UniProtKB/TrEMBL annotation:
Protein name per Swiss-Prot or TrEMBL: Peroxidase
Cofactor(s) essential for the protein: Ca(2+); heme b
Taxonomic source organism: Elaeis guineensis var. tenera
Entry-linked PROSITE patterns: PEROXIDASE_1, PEROXIDASE_2, PEROXIDASE_4
EC class: oxidoreductase
Family, similarity comment: Belongs to the peroxidase family. Ascorbate peroxidase subfamily. Belongs to the peroxidase family. Classical plant (class III) peroxidase subfamily.
List of residues binding substrate: P164
Parts of the chain that traverse the membrane: none
Domain Plant heme peroxidase family profile: 26-327
Gene Ontology biological process terms, A to Z: hydrogen peroxide catabolic process; response to oxidative stress
Length: 327
């Protein structure tokens, strides 16, 4: 039987009170208690409605938050459109035709503006939305410190260079995380976000037909999964944008099955399966595959760390009234 939401909240809170790092700068768990007391309810309803329309949106919102925080911090720079003064991050290679859900954040922002005009940043809305997407998918609940302000610039170059890629080695991914103040444990834990969502065939097709230019499939890939993926992603360019679930077992549920898949040689992305190539990361994968509560606890703690990357507070940045443009 599924664990009740209230029980998951209590469990997650106890863990995070023990394990969470200090709140960054001027962030505060009660930042909007007076100025926008219904903020969480508004965001939760917006995320719930979007997921009701398309379950896949949960993973999309979580990924959007990740891609925002890894480029100059959690400042909603990813949400900015091209303009005379802005070269948008949306058109960077890791984001173009990949990151999605911008219209969901637009809708939530509009509802928040109606309730609390010029009060809540897009960065805070996206941070809460990512937490709600996980929780409403059956995952952990963690408390989010608020008070971020929105950036007034975008950085397409950094988006192209700093975001981890499914083609990166574990060493490269770990280095990119370290540059953001995240450690190897955070790499393993946050990779667990791939328990929900889909990947386009081009991100893993080399494993199916020509692994490392060998002309053969990746020998580490489970043979049954290999056959299914070769059918879904035939070896031609037209299949590149076809979608495959990152976790084919419980595709829309946030759980620890992702790690069980890795233990069974059924990780979809090479960068995921590579977690078993290092003894330290392999040990963590094994633990999370056996202890879902441990994964939930650590995922919340790692998200709190990521949520604090490069945040703008106080008089820095601004509170955008439209997430797509600076004021």
């Amino acid at each position: 039987m599924d664990q009740k939401p209230s029980s998951r909240i209590i469990f997650s809170l106890v863990c995070l009170l023990i394990l969470s790092p200090p709140i960054h700068g001027q962030l505060d768990y009660r930042f909007y208690d007076t100025s926008c007391p219904n903020l969480t309810r508004i965001v939760r309803y917006g995320v719930w409605s979007a997921m009701l329309n398309e379950t896949r949106m949960a993973a999309s919102l979580l990924r959007m938050h990740f891609h925002d925080c890894f480029v100059d911090g959690c400042d909603a720079s990813l949400l900015l459109d091209d303009s005379d003064d802005i070269i948008s991050e949306k058109s960077a290679s890791p984001n173009k035709n990949s990151v999605r859900g911008y219209e969901v954040i637009d809708s939530i922002k509009a509802d928040v503006e109606k309730a609390c005009p010029s009060t809540v940043s897009c960065a805070d809305i996206l941070t809460i939305a990512a937490r709600e997407a996980v929780f409403l998918s059956g995952g952990p609940f963690w408390y989010v410190a608020l008070g971020r302000r929105d950036g007034t610039a975008a950085n397409r170059t950094a988006a192209n260079e700093q975001l981890p890629s499914p083609f990166d080695s574990l060493t490269t991914i770990t280095a990119k995380f370290a540059a953001k103040g995240l450690d190897t444990k955070d790499v393993v834990v946050l990779s667990g976000a791939h328990t929900i969502g889909f990947a386009q065939c081009f991100t893993f097709k080399n494993r199916l037909f020509n692994f490392n230019n060998s002309g053969e499939p990746d020998p580490a890939l489970d043979t049954s999964l290999l056959r299914n993926l070769q059918s879904l992603c035939p070896n031609n360019v037209s299949s590149n944008s076809n979608l495959a679930p990152l976790d084919p077992v419980t595709t829309s549920r946030f759980d620890n099955v992702y790690y069980k898949n890795l233990m069974n040689s059924s990780g979809l992305l090479q960068s995921d399966q590579a977690l078993l190539d290092d003894s330290d990361t392999a040990s963590m994968v094994s633990d999370y595959s056996r202890y879902p509560y441990m994964f939930f606890r650590d995922f919340g703690a790692s998200m709190v760390k990521m949520d604090s990357i490069g945040v703008l507070t106080g008089g820095n940045g601004e509170i955008r009234t439209n997430c797509r443009v600076v004021n």
